[in-house]
Write a structure and sequence with these properties.
mainly alpha; two-stranded antiparallel sheet; single chain; globular
Length: 109
């Protein structure tokens, strides 16, 4: 997955590997919690890890900002990097057939 992230970011060397691995680890841990504490991220949801890691990498230096503007250009950041994936996560949770593995709904207050 690290190689895929590097390709999408246009990184050809290993100079940012430690940073990317840390972002990937943190993002994976958070997604596992959102999925009800699964041990492994389901294959069909791995794209979420890739895309959220890229978002977080691109936001380095802008942590804590909700928006940023320079010379007429304005960028807005979501409070939750997973917002655009909540429907996909909920669909996966709903698809879990066995009652013992069925998770609840995702709620953000």
């Amino acid at each position: 997955m690290l190689d895929e992230i590097k390709i999408l970011l246009g990184l050809s060397d290993d100079s940012r590997n430690e940073l990317l691995e840390t972002i990937l680890s943190i993002t994976k841990s958070r997604l596992k919690v959102m999925l009800g504490g699964v041990d492994d991220i389901p294959k069909e949801l791995e794209y979420i890890l890739t895309e959220v890691c890229i978002r977080r990498f691109n936001r380095i230096g802008s942590e804590g900002f909700s928006s940023h503007g320079v010379e007429g250009e304005s960028i807005s950041f979501s409070d939750n990097d997973f917002d655009s994936y909540l429907d996909d996560i909920q669909s996966w949770l709903n698809s879990q057939d066995e009652p013992s593995t069925k998770r609840g709904r995702i709620r953000f207050l």
